[in-house]
Specification:
heterodimer, A: about 250 residues, alpha/beta, four-stranded antiparallel β-sheet, B: about 300 residues, ABC transporter involved in vitamin B12 uptake, BtuC, two-stranded antiparallel sheet, globular, binds adenosine-5'-triphosphate, binds magnesium ion
Amino acid sequence: MSLLELEEVNSYYGESHILRGVTMEVEEGQIIALLGRNGAGKTTTLRSITGASPPEVRSGTVRFEGNDITGRRPEDISALGLSLVPEERRMFSNLTVAENLHVPDISRNLLNRIGRSEETGKTGLSDEEVYEQFPRLDERREQKAGTLSGGEQQMLAIARTLKQDTDLLMLDEPSEGLAPQIVQDVLDIIEEIAEQGKTILLVEQNAAAAIRLADYCYVLDQGRIVYEGTSEELEANDEVRQEYLGV
Amino acid sequence: MSVVGSVVGFMIQTLAVSSIYILVAIGLSITLGTLKFVNFAHAAMYLAGVYIGLGIALELQFSGDIARSIGLGNVGLDLGFLAALAIIPIITFGLGLLMERFVARPFYDRPDTDQILVTFGILLIVQELIRAFVGGRSLTFSRPAWAEGAISLGPLGTYASWRLAIIGITSVLVLAVYLYIEYTDVGLAVRAGTEDTEMVNLLGVRATRPFLVIFGVGSGLAGAAGVVGGPVFSVVPEVGVGVLVPAFLVVVVGGVGSIVGSVVGGLLIGAVEVGLVMNAPTWSSVGIYALAAVVLLVRPAGLMGAVEVDE
Ligand SMILES: Nc1ncnc2c1ncn2[C@@H]1O[C@H](COP(=O)(O)OP(=O)(O)OP(=O)(O)O)[C@@H](O)[C@H]1O
Ligand SMILES: [Mg+2]
């Protein structure tokens, strides 16, 4: 059984039909890359998995650890151990770094847990562990998140999800808008997290880097999976890379 | 009176009037900031504070048409002002939870105009229910005996103890809510959710719950404002609309979603109102609109606000 399975998922924004029967699997312990051009439907796929709305999943099934999670609320799906680092990082920019890191901890608050069947309130990394892994954040605990550099914000966005008890981390274009040196730092962090035993679903514009990092790749075009294969296979398949990824 | 004395006197009078506006404005501001919900029915909590508070503190005479036709007499617990001040926030907190769940939540995704129509409608319904049961005439909400008379502040002059009591009560309540929002998990969830509710959900927190709690807290403050304001403003059914307007201007001036903004806005509105009432009474109600207009021209988001008020 795969950790995450999508079966014939069809997602809509209002009347526009975006995901057209997406089927894919994410094996535990692997790094999976989801690639494709602008507007191919990568973000829509991740949002469909996390239960964020819009889009609306009108048919198909999303299974996590074998359980159907289609149409469940984002906070419940997150509590199951499936986290998203969304596009554009989405800092709480008026909150300090420490406060940003504390928001996931609120899921342990009784008010949040009461009456919810999920295993809410499971803990991920402690503050100390997070600061150890992200020393740049440690130095900036009391700084407003909005004043961090792009790279630091991306680190914070990743660190924030590690405070949850995450099994599967989905990252939507983590290298977007970052200087090349910082991109490498972010990719290193992702690799490090994978080595710590987390499964990763990575969406990237920077296809070459993503293929290098990934074990297995899916290519999306106009809401359909048009190719899947191991990184070596995709590396060797110039045709697919040129037609759908432009590399 | 010395210059210092008249300045301090003006300040104390301003603070007393501002206090009530601030207590009402904070709830309005928070729901507008977090939930983008324009809640004119918030003033119904003030009305609940005044009328239920009067029933708890002293006695409420039911002399409206409906009350008479069903033979409803007077109801009074006669527990005193402090008891009302302690009980009313709890009652209005509960009413606030009900209002969020059944009135506000169904309208979160609707346009502002729908929200205004529905919530203003509810305020008018509450107002008319009060008229039907309690009656439309002005009631007396007497000050407690301990707040009668005056207190000497040494060289600064002598001032009505009642005004000082209002200022003290308001300061404690506003500070408590400020600390609650700054230093608790619920407060943090509210501040984070004000910026990006979906992100809070994605981090495993069901944001509707802290939002519900904070809606109740805002309602509790408005209820407390009713108890404090009862002996200051007149006790008539229209007083809800009467405090709603300046409280809304406080939010506009101070900036949406900011407690500090509500305090600053409340002080400004209060100062302009008190200053005009003292010197040019006919201009007093126009003055606060003029102030709001000037502030909005200079700073569209209000003095402390990050979010722009639409329209
Ligand atoms: N909220 C929305 N409402 C309507 N259409 C949308 C919405 N979000 C995305 N779309 C459309 O859905 C399609 C897929 O968008 P999506 O954001 O999933 O692409 P993507 O692969 O993530 O692209 P990018 O690499 O630019 O981030 C696009 O045609 C886009 O215009
Ligand atoms: Mg995208």
